[in-house]
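User: My collaborator sent over this chain with a note saying "see what the structure looks like." That's all I know about it. Can you take a look?
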Amino acid sequence: MTHDSRTDVLLDPRHDAPLDGPCRSGEREVFERGANERAEAAREREEAAKAVCHRCPVRLPCRRHALADRILHGVRGGLTPDERHRLLANTQAVSAK
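Assistant: Without extra context I'll predict from the sequence alone. Here is the result:
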């Protein structure tokens, strides 16, 4: 167990996930893409993960952690890896102006 003071959330270092979030329960499988997962199945799984994130009390700290540490896999804080990548790219473009 580690504490990330930048995001004020207790994390399980093996999964980069908050220890007190609902993603730590039986719904864990919706947060990670499976091998050979088809695009439609991935979208459905990501929407299910986002629904879990939507009701999560640590969603925003989890999102900040995923963005700060550039976590490249899984839905974190209600954002997919592609959404996090676009958000970071937009933030960097604005900062460069």
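A starting point for your reply to your collaborator: DSSP finds three helices and three strands in the chain.
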